[in-house]
Structures are given as C-alpha cells and as structure tokens.
Amino acid sequence: MENLYYDIDLGRVPKHIAIIMDGNGRWAKSRMMPRTYGHKMGVETIRKVVKECSRLGVKYLTLYAFSTENWKRPADEVNALMSLLVSYLRKELAELHKNNVKILTIGDISKLPQACIDELNKSIDETKDNTGLVLSLALNYGSRADIKSAVTRIAKMVEEGKISIDDIDDEMISSSMSTRNIVDPDLVIRTSGEQRLSNFLLWEVAYSEFYFTDKHWPDFDEEALQEAIYNYQARDRRFGNVK
C-alpha cells in the first residue's frame, strides 16, 4: 500500500478506533482566529481521517463530536457546530455512500436542532446497507447518561417480569446502550495534549489502548493517524491475562 509513513502491519490494524477530537479552539486562538474557524478546520480533519481509516481497513470509527456538556458553550459556538454538522453531511454524504461508509449515531440526537436530525436520519437511512467503515458520530452524547439509560431500561424489564436480576450480565448491559451496534474500541485517541476521557465511552473502553498526542485536532492528519496505529501495534494487549 502506498503512502505508509510508518511500518504498519495492515493485518493488525485496530478494528475500532474512537477519537476525542480536541483542540479546535486553541488551534484557532494560536492563529488569532475565532474558535468557529478552528471547528471549521476540524471538519477538514474529519474528512482526512475517515478516508484514511477506510483505506487502512479500520472497521469502526467513532468520533466524539458533541458532548452533553458542550451545551454550556456560548450559543454562537453551539450554533456554528450544528451548522457545520449539517454542512458536513450535505457535502460528504454522496462521497461517503460511494465509499461504502455506514453512518450511525450514539447519544440523544432528539435534542439537536431539527435540521441536524433531518440530515442525520437521511444519512443513516441512505447508508444503512453499506458494508465498509462504520462511522459513528457521538452527538449530545455522555457516557454516564448512556449508562443510566441502560440501567433504567433493564430495571424496567425486571419490574415488568420480563427478566430476572440473575439474567443481568455484561452482554445485556452492552446491548442496552446506544453503542450496541458497534464493537468496543481497540484504540482511543485524544488530541491536544489532554489526558482524560471526558465522559466518553466509559463502559466500552475497559480494555482499550489509549494514545494521547499534543497535536490539536486541525493538525491531526493521515501521518498522525498512522503514528497512533504504529504505537498501538507495539503494545502487548493482555485483556487481564498473563502471557
């Protein structure tokens, strides 16, 4: 395969990569530009990373696009993020569909503006039969809220007598969460130097590998993604076992 910056074993590429896209605002500030400009350039990075994941054979890519806490940001920034989401889907849907990408969401998208909901539903429906990369957008997503919803759903089934408490296991909890249609991440990447999960996939990352980079999200490119995968492949994943 051409354009490999690192000696990656294409037979051991992570099946699922999850990314906390951080640093758009700081990237823009360092260039004396508004935060919204950083978010706009961050969308360009999404395009690059989606294409590169497809090219390398990654099966699942989950992007932390908008958290339940992001509503606390200034209204103009939130509005800009929502507009960028709609713009991205409208511009990229045909290309994503052509490249066999399947679009999913995790999180409560019912709280998003109607224009976002409409574009998301259209994108999900149009790509539902695709068999390539599964691109999951985490929107109005918070892992604690997702876990709470799963617990509530299971508790209701117990209350209605549909299951007993003894029936509850890891598989049932996983299947009750919004991530039920994707496998647990092999690799979690966070850009911009921060080293925390920020309420992202807390249940699912129990055995994930973590990779932190000082690069702000707009500077994260194909080479940076390959570097993260190369670093991942050098690790010995034991899943709690002794080897």
UniProtKB/TrEMBL annotation:
Matching InterPro entries: UPP_synth-like, UPP_synth-like_CS, UPP_synth-like_sf
Gene Ontology molecular-function annotations: ditrans,polycis-undecaprenyl-diphosphate synthase [(2E,6E)-farnesyl-diphosphate specific] activity; magnesium ion binding; manganese ion binding
Keywords per UniProt: Magnesium, Metal-binding, Transferase
Cross-referenced PROSITE patterns: UPP_SYNTHASE
Location of the active site: 22, 70 (proton acceptor)
One GO cellular component, as annotated: cytosol
Keyword Transferase in record: yes
Single Gene Ontology BP annotation: polyprenol biosynthetic process
Record-listed substrate binding positions: 23-27, 35, 39, 67-69, 71, 73, 190, 196-198
Cofactor requirement: Mg(2+)
HAMAP family: ISPT (MF_01139)
Function text: Catalyzes the condensation of isopentenyl diphosphate (IPP) with allylic pyrophosphates generating different type of terpenoids.
Family membership noted in the UniProt record: Belongs to the UPP synthase family.
Protein name per the record: Isoprenyl transferase
Upper taxonomic lineage: Bacteria, Bacillati, Bacillota, Clostridia, Peptostreptococcales
